[in-house]
């Protein structure tokens, strides 16, 4: 009771200790997974809404954690960021995604997520170039997905890195657009090739007028600035129709394909083109 007034004591609460221990264990497991090559990438198709053609895929990190099972990236990326492990994990993802995309028809693109911490680390540009060089993938086939977290600090440096990436032909997509503090102003300030409309808006298409208005505004503003739009998390035909009516070019979501292994993605391509 008396001690509860003194902040320091709270550090030794059992819950706190438990959390710390869990974090340490997670960090240790991440290091082992990285060293052993336990991470995998899943590929989710990105589809042209007008023609139904597969345009490419987004690479999503997968980890079968020993003794735990499938760990969603949302549950370990923050620890990877805090411990700096996101650097080597992200570099691995870039290499692996480019290598995999080399086995696809060469009009298809590959989108790779780059976290804000990874983006700010020295050598991000070099890691991207090295992934392109060692795989032989044309730069124009690689798209880097960044979130607003990338744009919040170090504006000049961020802008310089984005420009460098674009100068070699790499595409930039603004992920999760419309969430957090991301604003339409970002579209003008930073050089994007694509805007990804966040699932939280897509989910409410058909039952929430304000979500519809936001989608309409984002697509309209993007087009005015010459930027393509892709909607994420499309699950129903109603959502797809509303996006099509509003001029959104591409879609990604369970309706078109869940994240899958590289082999399954290639098989899907073969089936859909009849090759
Ligand atoms: P994100 O970039 O917004 O990725 C989209 C997430 O939505 C993915 O979850 C995907 O599996 C899921 N999703 C796709 N379509 C649907 C749908 O129709 N319905 C629903 N309910 N969900 C859908 P996932 O794979 O668990 O990834 C979660 C987040 O983890 C990603 O969100 C991304 O921020 C992060 N992430 C994943 N891979 C990487 C990576 O290689 N590097 C970094 N830095 N972050 C990653
Ligand atoms: Ca993404
Ligand atoms: Ca996203
Ligand atoms: Ca999202």
Automatic annotation (TrEMBL):
Residue span(s) of domain EAL: 23-273
Organism: Muricoccus vinaceus
Top-level division of the source organism's lineage: Bacteria
Protein's name in the database: Bifunctional diguanylate cyclase/phosphodiesterase
């Amino acid at each position: 009771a008396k001690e509860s007034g003194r902040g320091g004591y709270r550090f030794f609460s059992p819950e706190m200790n438990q959390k710390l221990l869990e974090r340490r264990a997670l960090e240790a497991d991440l290091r082992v997974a990285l060293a052993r090559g336990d991470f995998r990438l899943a590929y989710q198709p990105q589809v042209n809404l007008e023609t139904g053609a597969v345009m490419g895929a987004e690479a999503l990190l997968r980890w079968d954690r020993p003794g735990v099972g499938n760990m969603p990236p949302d549950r370990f990326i923050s620890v990877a960021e805090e411990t700096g492990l996101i650097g080597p994990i992200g570099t691995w993802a870039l290499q692996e995604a480019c290598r995999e995309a080399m086995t696809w028809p060469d009009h298809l693109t590959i989108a790779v997520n780059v976290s804000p911490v990874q983006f700010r680390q020295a050598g991000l540009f070099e890691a991207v170039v090295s992934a392109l060089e060692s795989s032989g993938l044309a730069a124009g086939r690689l798209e880097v997905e960044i979130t607003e977290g990338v744009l919040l600090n170090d504006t000049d440096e961020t802008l310089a890195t984005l420009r460098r990436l674009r100068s070699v032909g790499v595409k930039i997509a603004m992920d999760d657009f419309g969430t957090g503090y991301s604003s339409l102003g970002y579209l003008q300030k930073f050089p994007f090739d694509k805007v990804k409309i966040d699932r939280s808006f897509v989910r409410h298409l058909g039952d929430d007028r304000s979500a519809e208005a936001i989608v309409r505004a984002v697509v309209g503003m993007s087009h005015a600035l010459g930027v393509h739009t892709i909607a994420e998390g499309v699950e129903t035909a109603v959502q797809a129709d509303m996006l099509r009516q509003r001029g959104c070019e591409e879609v990604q979501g369970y309706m078109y394909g869940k994240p899958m292994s590289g082999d399954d993605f290639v098989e899907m391509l073969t089936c859909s083109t009849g090759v």
